Amino acid sequence: MGGGRDVPCRRVLVTGASGRLGAGMLEQANLAGLSAHGWQGPAGRADPALRPVDLTDLNAIDQALALDDPGIVIHAAAVSTAEAVLRDPVHARRVNVEATARIAAWCVRERRRLVFTSTDLVFDGSRAFSREEDEPCPLLEYGRTKRAAELELAGNPGCVVVRIALLYGPAPNGRPGFFDTSIAALRRGAAKSFFVDEYRTPLDYRSAARGVLAIACSDHDGVFHLGGPERLSRFELMRRAAAVLGIDARLVLGNALSSMTFPEPRPADVSLDCTRLATLFPEVVRPTVEDALRDG
Length: 296
Ligand SMILES: NC(=O)c1ccc[n+]([C@@H]2O[C@H](COP(=O)([O-])OP(=O)(O)OC[C@H]3O[C@@H](n4cnc5c(N)ncnc54)[C@H](OP(=O)(O)O)[C@@H]3O)[C@@H](O)[C@H]2O)c1
Hints:
The chain is built from ten helices and 13 strands. It has 296 residues and is α/β, with parallel strands linked by helices. It has a domain at 12-166 and 203-229 and 273-289: Rossmann fold. NADP nicotinamide-adenine-dinucleotide phosphate (NAP) binds at residues 16, 18-22, 40-43, 46, 53-56, 76-80, 95, 117, 119, 146, 164, 166-167.
């Protein structure tokens, strides 16, 4: 790991290591022979090897950081869905913004590297293939919390924001997400509808985990976009996933985002331009849906 760069990969802490992406990163870090450990949420129900840290307790964050003394922090813990953020926006701000600010303050003070996992949903969806320098303008409260957190890191040396696209594939932590539940329903023969007019650049969990780790173990700062190689609607993603998994693709139906009402406006196209990542990290593979699921 490290892509030939001269910054040594030090002890890595993954927050949110009981989550889908976090579990994948811990797994990939261990496979790469890094010294890595993780935090989980306050319930501590997932894994006795993970340290339970409640991110709403700012003093607990400081104490756990001092105990673990990581060289690199990959901050993947979050209230991670638009629905959960809307259910309790005050709690979501505490976890997504205030805790991130506290972790960033510690990393800057102690001169440690910090990689923050942000989202494509910081963009308003009005244009395809957003670049790192394009102005974020989130429509969803979830995206607003992630953008506010990004600004807590901005301009600090050693701090990196990785804006990650929609992730798919079997959940690395075994807790089913939208992909697992959709595939399970399709396997049972139930037809399911997916938006034909909401575009992302989806990437599988394992490749995303590898990509974030490569960035973490480098000396590159600033903002990176990390997504898959193609701009796809959810309908196209699931139709192709069904086909490669041997599921009758005719069960995958299309419906229009634009014909439905939601509690918040949904961005239509948050596809990401990943040129910076592809240029600086040519070793990071971003497979097609077929390659990701066939290999997995
Ligand atoms: N999945 C995607 O498609 C996607 C796309 C773009 C960006 N991202 C970003 O990637 C990161 C990981 O997403 P994910 O899908 O892996 O999320 P996830 O599966 O929902 O995991 C969230 C993690 O955050 C932890 N967490 C939540 N509240 C906490 C609290 N109060 N204190 C401590 N830990 C807490 C959870 O711990 P417990 O479960 O143990 O409580 C869990 O480990 C997030 O920053 C998300 O915004 C995800």
